[in-house]
Write a structure and sequence with these properties.
homodimer, 346 residues, alpha/beta, Quinone Oxidoreductase, Chain A, domain 1, six-stranded antiparallel beta sheet, six-stranded parallel beta sheet, 33% helix, 25% strand, globular, binds NADP nicotinamide-adenine-dinucleotide phosphate, oxidoreductase (chains A, B), NAD(P)-bd_dom_sf (chains A, B)
């Protein structure tokens, strides 16, 4: 076997000298380097911002969405949406382990795992699209993927259905960061609170802020809001379009009596919601941008533009213990689990 | 006078419902609303990431660069570079103050001010390009601009030359944030340490980290590095291309004996330096992205991709006291002032 670089640099085709994530193109030949893991892929979970973009570009036609995905992989060697810049993750079965890793890691051939690194840096082939779920962005395929030595993964648990593990692990950075950021008594605003990451953040925020905290959930659409109301974790549920910042500003101002949020978590899957996040937050408060549709410049210049001294955090998909924490939440809360079961028709 | 909205919403032409910064197009008619300030513009300081992009697109030709700028303003009503998303700022003289503001703010007609909000949200007209400095991105024009009620500004000081105030105030968020983030004894890595924001961050980092701190300055090119060496504020100066993350990783690993940076500040003006910033930083350390060429997804997914649990901050251009702090630095340090004088040929 050929020796590989810890970070997968040996797979970068262009531009030369970059890392696999920012690279335009990766070598996705499935011949293994000595520190790689080869995976037979079962299901891709396309990042929500990416999937929405593809679905809209193809008018929701499942066949065309599949072709669109195959074209991305054919041209880049990875499922790295050139418009949104984001990826997603996958589950599959370990087929082969490079000789430099075998015996040194807690994986065996045959183990079923979820990758915890983005598809935007994962060498991938798609032989065939087996099942396309245009509602959820979970796509069963025949294909293979490569995990680098530095790549994180989680073994799939026995007690949680695969589709739920896949969905939960895709967004597991969000509740884990929420647990770090929320203090007892905090006022927390969650944008896109009815989505996958949004509901997990909502549950965790309620836990961390405790009964003296105030949790404001914002979601667009009556159905989504009704579902959040039913969970009972939010003190206030607001039906608002987060691309309309002034609506959000006014509602949060009213609900907090002008104090605004200590922490705002953005879990929306469409562009143009930076200003709503900033305006919902108090001076010297924190905005946690988990959404991959966030524009760096819109956030930086938007905050400056309204003279708002807020701390703005880029949602790193990784933080220690994130996978375990999020699976624990689904085990702990029957309501949370049921919500995911309904989403994935289980 | 027509009544205006505090945040300038009345100037948004499209898309409807957005704020002036993310808006595609603003109304730049120079007829004042009652809470606006009209400015006769003297000089624009185009954001470095934006100016580099325009200059390269026009092969460095000053006339074409000027036309390019005028086209941006003609189509958007503001100098909001559609490629980089960034703006810059301006200096000029107050010509008129809306009746709702007059007497309530510390400005008089005739005062000379710098705007502290981005050009990407400032209604602007350019009648004529008077002088184009393709080296620095400072452009003297005949034209006018509007400041909203919520817009920040600073009166130009008498004891600092205008061009220096303009340059310093454009990047004043960076040293102010550095002062907040650096603790005594910290190891700080600065990328693009020879630029305008870079040198100010370098000076402030040295001050805040004290003699027990370790400051590592990274800049590309021998000349720039020699200039930094001469200042004497960095413990180590490295001549490296920050678009090559592994080079940066290895050098910082060596210089810190494997401990890496507590804080990394990115002050580079070109794309593709997210990974270098992340890899230079220790686990649970902080990356402060001041660069407007930062890609949100490249940062978020890049950190996850290498399993790096770092805190990543979006460089908010505003923080309390930022203008005063940065002007004070230039007053305090003759070397810093001289550096800016040389840059602007004073
Ligand atoms: N940082 C990371 O590592 C990471 C990892 C994974 C995902 N993400 C990002 O996190 C975000 C959320 O992901 P997810 O999987 O939780 O997505 P999701 O399940 O699709 O949830 C998105 C939510 O936002 C709501 N929404 C859409 N437009 C809205 C609007 N205008 N105003 C208010 N709410 C609106 C959606 O409502 P409807 O369903 O009614 O449209 C939905 O409830 C995405 O941008 C994704 O890219 C980041
Ligand atoms: N967040 C905010 O509010 C805000 C406000 C203003 C500016 N900014 C951003 O901050 C950044 C810096 O602005 P500035 O005005 O300080 O810019 P600047 O004076 O042009 O400095 C940029 C520095 O980066 C160096 N550099 C270029 N390519 C490099 C590479 N490959 N490796 C290492 N160093 C490299 C440059 O060296 P050479 O000169 O030799 O090319 C220069 O010293 C820009 O991206 C700008 O858009 C942000």
């Amino acid at each position: 076997m050929r020796p590989g670089h810890r970070y997968g640099l040996h797979r970068v085709v262009e531009p030369e000298g970059t890392m696999p994530q920012p690279a335009w193109k990766l070598d996705n030949s499935m011949e293994l380097y000595d520190n790689e893991i080869l995976i037979d892929v079962e299901t891709l979970n396309i990042d929500s911002a990416s999937f929405v973009q593809i679905r809209e570009a193809e008018g929701g036609d499942p066949v065309k969405v599949g072709e669109h995905m195959q074209n991305i992989v054919a041209s880049r060697g990875k499922h790295h949406n050139p418009v949104t810049g984001s990826g997603g993750m996958l589950i599959g079965t370990v087929r082969q382990i490079g000789q430099q890793l075998a015996g040194k890691i807690d994986l065996q051939v045959g183990d079923r795992i979820a990758t915890l690194v983005s598809l935007s840096l994962t060498p991938l082939t798609i032989e065939e699209i087996v099942k396309m779920d245009v509602k959820t962005g979970q796509v069963d395929i025949k294909g293979q993927a490569i995990l680098f030595e530095s790549g994180l993964y989680a073994k799939l648990p026995d007690d949680v259905p695969d589709r739920i593990s896949l969905a939960v692990l895709d967004v597991c950075g969000a509740p884990a960061q929420t647990a770090k950021l929320v203090q007892e008594g905090d006022t927390v605003v969650i944008l896109g609170a009815g989505g996958k990451s949004g509901t997990m953040v909502l549950y965790q925020a309620r836990k961390s802020a405790g009964p003296t905290g105030k949790i404001i959930a914002i979601e667009y659409g009556e159905q989504g809001c009704a579902a959040i109301e039913k969970l009972g974790w939010a003190d206030v549920v607001l039906n608002l379009d987060c691309t309309r910042p002034v609506d959000v500003l006014e509602a949060v101002e009213r609900e907090t009596e002008g104090r605004f949020a200590d922490l705002t978590v953005n879990c929306v899957n469409i562009p143009g919601t930076e200003m709503a996040s900033i305006l919902a937050t108090r001076d010297e408060g924190t905005v946690y941008f988990f959404s991959m549709a966030t524009s760096f410049t819109a956030a930086a210049l938007g905050a400056e533009g309204v003279g708002k001294d807020v701390n703005m955090i880029i949602g790193n998909g990784y933080t220690k213990g994130h996978a375990d924490l999020s699976l624990e939440l689904v085990r702990e809360s029957a309501a949370l689990r049921q919500l995911f079961e309904t989403k994935y028709g289980l």
